[in-house]
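DM from R.C. (forwarded with permission)

"hey, sorry to bug you on a friday — could you get me a structure for this? deadline for the figure draft is monday and I only need the backbone to look sensible"
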Amino acid sequence: MTLTLALALFAAAFAAGALNAVAGGGTLLTFPALVAAGLPPIVANATSSVSQWPGYVASSLAFRRELAGQRQFAGMSVASLAGGLLGAWLVTVVSPRLFDVLIPWLILLATAMFAFSATLTRWMGRHAANVGRSRGGLLAGQFVVSIYGGFFGGGMGIMMLALYSLFALDTLTRMNALKTWLSVVISGVAVVTFIVAGIIDWPAAIVMLAGTIVGGIAGARLARRLPAIWLKRVVVALGSVLTLAFFWKVYG
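My reply, with the result:
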């Protein structure tokens, strides 16, 4: 790896860490940067997951108090573990060509979820009264979201908050705390799976790990000064451009 490439990956990871701390959407920076660096999409996806996992851990530690006493904690953790493992396993067995075809759609989905996250969560909350409070339904929903999270991950936090709003699970703060912890579980089991499968580019992963950690610290400070909506619009614009670029690459 050249110094120029290492600096470029560090810069992308730094920006991703800052965005995750403020508004989310870091995957829309780390994954395309790794693809642009020449990594195959499957390897780029696995390496991106490794680079962002410490950020989930740090956020979860900050929510320790809000996680205490949540009745759904154990069941949701098991569902996330199983779903994340299945999603990550699918990455290791799917053909590179199929993964390439899926990527533009996954980026489109992540961008759309990010753009309309507030609207989606409000809509789900309004329709909560029409949904049975089935514990099985909640666990099944978490399992499905976790499969997506283990496979790609972009936008999975938004999906989880929307699911919890549909079931009127708890206050927003406590739902966010649960979402953050389950992101640790999903991403953690995916990272372990990718390590065992040997599909991580470690030089790139180490550089990006450093970038996301430093960026996360800077982002926490930035969050006190900048409205999150500004950065959210930047992420949506970037995601839209990346969606078009990957569609052109695959289908153009």
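R.C.: lifesaver. The chain has a mean pLDDT of 83.
me: no worries. The two ends are 30 Å apart (CA to CA).
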